[in-house]
Each structure stands twice: as C-alpha cells, then as structure tokens.
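Today's session is about reading a structure prediction critically. Students often jump straight to the picture, but the first step is always the sequence itself: look for stretches that repeat, for charged clusters, for runs of hydrophobic residues. Only then move on to the predicted structure, which in these notes is written as discrete structure tokens rather than atom positions. Here is the chain we will use throughout the hour.
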Amino acid sequence: MASSIVLLSLLCFSLISYQAIASRTLDPTKGFTSLPLDQSNFEVQWPYNMQEDQRYSFENGIRRMWVYSNDKPHFPTSHTRPRTEVRIQGYDYSSGVWQFEGYGYVPSGTSGVCIMQVFGATGHATTLMLRTYNGDLYYYSDEVIVKNIYDRWFRVNVIHDVDADKLHIYIDGALVYEAQGRGGESHYFKCGVYEQDDGSHYMESRWKGIKVLKKM
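Below is the predicted structure for this chain, in token form.
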C-alpha cells in the first residue's frame, strides 16, 4: 500500500514537471497575421562574380545558401564580406510589431557567420544578427542563446516591436532572448549566410517555411 502511494506521488510529480516545462513553449505567432509571400518577395544576394546557382538553390521548398570565405562581395563596389542571403522585399517597416518566422538548418563546420538579421538601425547596419560559432547560436558575438544547433532543423521566430524598441527571439517555440532595439527609420528581414569574424572557409545555411507576420 505504501509503495503504491509513493509510486502515485512520483507519477503526479512527473506530470506536474512535464506541464511546467511544456508551458515554457508557446506559439509566438498567436495574435499576428501572416502576410502573403511569393517569389518576388525573395531577393537573392550572392557574390557578384558567380552565377546565382553557384551559391543558391531552391528545391522542394528549401532555400540553400552557401559561400566561401574567399568569395567576392555581392556587388563590385561593396566592401562587405562574402554573403549569400535572401532579403525579404515588399515588407520594409518603420513602425508596429513585425515578426520573421522560418526553419533554419546549419551543417557542421559552418562558423563565424550571420544566418539571420533584422536590417536597419541608428549608428549600426543592423538591429539584430543571429550568428553561429562552433555549433552554437549567438546574439551577435556577445552571448550564446542556444547550444548545439548543427545538423538539425530549428524553428526561428523573431519579433520586433519598433515602437517599444524591443526584440524577442524564440527558438523551437521557447523564448530564448530579449534584446533592446537599435533605433533606425526602416527595417527588413534577411537570412542565409553572411561572413563575420573568424568565419570558416565554407559556410552554409538552409531555410524553409519563411513567413513575415504583423500584429494588426
């Protein structure tokens, strides 16, 4: 009888613990409206001396982007580092609450690279960069926000409240980071690979299910 009571207590404790963990994850898109996207909304940027299909592919709903550390920038007069990125067109914004959603994948070995950004800021080029270093996901190069992202799909939701100047980053439905905004008069979303400090020779990320959402 006593052992049954102990077992029942353990089961109840496990259920409560599971419910507590599950409650930490939620749907970040709740209360947002998904905006229509077609191919015209995806502007591809790649090294100017290459053909697009030498650094970018879109097959079976997956956008694969790769670059080498000795590649050229995306246009001849640019002094930026190599990149292959998708820039979301048609939804530049300067006020309100906006959200990027997508499923990202980073293969082993890719490091020192930005895989997603919110472009536009005051005194900076960007309001947000998600970077990967040695298999971990960083807010810029400042802080690890998720460990061990190599070789798996992970859901990314970035909410930018322009008026409150705040950002919320969700990975796989869990809020992992909150950041102060950086001002700026206009913003847009990008994803792909853009070399940063200590970049690996080969850099790649893949994206699917990309959405832009707005709180109406």
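Discussion point for the tutorial: The chain is about 10% helix and 45% strand.
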